[in-house]
Design goal:
single chain; alpha+beta; CRO Repressor; 4-stranded antiparallel sheet
């Protein structure tokens, strides 16, 4: 009984110091990777406590590797964020792509870095082309008309609202339109 209690205290201390970022975060802010690390750490801790006859090293080595890889991943993530945001030679598109890929992890780790995805640009409103937004994305009205034709819409007046997100996906709301009107 004394071995199990000592092992339990040891693993509680290791969990507290090794995974303090995960344990301090709210469950809604954790990522799937965080839950996986917690699951494996709890599993190893439980096995070490319920099997006091097996050597402690069988459980400490994998537990240490788990904590070490988690810590290294956090260090690499933080240093890459600093490098991308501070280096003026990095193109802004690369910084934005990195922010997109890291936004969930940064939010889950509880840092101040909050990422809000950009809004889709409206290209057509009430059947009228928004030329200013077309210029922002470097496209012309001819390109827009061709894209609409590819979807089977020949008349711009059919479209009540059309947006395009940053990945090139179109979202369209059609009017109840008949060509006789």
């Amino acid at each position: 009984m004394g071995t199990s209690a000592a092992r339990m205290l040891l693993f509680i201390i290791l969990l507290k110091f090794g995974l303090r970022d995960i344990l301090g975060a709210k469950p809604a802010e954790r990522t799937l990777a965080d839950f996986t690390v917690l699951f494996f750490a709890a599993d190893l801790s439980l096995l070490a406590v319920i099997r006091p006859n097996q050597p402690l090293a069988y459980f400490l080595v994998p537990f240490g590797i788990l904590i070490l890889t988690y810590r290294l991943q956090k260090i690499v993530q933080q240093s890459s964020e600093k490098w991308l945001t501070q280096d003026p030679s990095v193109p802004p598109s690369m910084v934005r792509e990195h922010e997109l890929s890291m936004s969930g992890a940064a939010y889950a780790s509880g840092t101040d870095h909050k990422y809000c995805p950009p809004m889709a640009l409206p290209l057509i409103e009430n059947g009228k082309v928004r030329g200013d937004n077309l210029r922002k994305i470097g496209k012309t009205q001819l390109w827009l008309r061709r894209e609409l034709r590819n979807f089977g819409y020949r008349d711009l007046r059919q479209v009540n609202y059309l947006t395009m997100d940053d990945t090139g996906n179109f979202f369209m709301d059609l009017k109840n339109y008949s060509p006789e009107n």
